[in-house]
């Protein structure tokens, strides 16, 4: 099982067999099925009688519970026994990558954006003025789309930013920090000065 940024992919090795086309079916069992449905198994609808050796279970494993997962092979009307993961899978164990951060300056405002943030993931953005690294302000981004505006910044100053993703349901699961990006604040006076008309003597 491989889970990166809340995308859960089950992969397996094909059996050694001389039969024709082998097809695979995947089932999963969460805590709800074990506790309230007499240990029944749910069918992964997108992974029934497929020929690929992988199954995307992102939409199926939609809660923070422990899931048992199994796969079965079928060939020439014969089915194998179920092969199960050696341990339950929980999406809280997903590997979070450092978020993709873009930084733009508009007047005295820094606009920060993040692309392809998975659901259930928030981002903490640390901001500090260059030369004043001990005074860091932190901002948490949870809304979709994921944008942050930092306003009323000092003209002529340089500000640095870094970000870290965190699973909202598990404070222990965090990504590495992004590379630090530094930008300078430059505002311009857009006022038009009207010069006096020249004085002509009569």
TrEMBL record:
Q: Name one GO cellular component term.
A: plasma membrane
Interferon/interleukin receptor domain ranges (all copies): 120-185
The superkingdom listed in its UniProt entry is: Eukaryota
Q: Does the keyword Nuclease apply?
A: no
- InterPro entries membership: FN3_dom, FN3_sf, Ig-like_fold, Interferon/interleukin_rcp_dom, Type-II_Cytokine-TF_Rcpt
Keywords of the record, alphabetical order, are: Receptor
Please identify the protein, giving its name as recorded. Answer: Interleukin-20 receptor subunit beta
One MF annotation (Gene Ontology) recorded for this entry: cytokine receptor activity
Q: What are the TM regions of this chain, as residue ranges?
A: none
Chain ranges of the Fibronectin type-III domain: 1-82
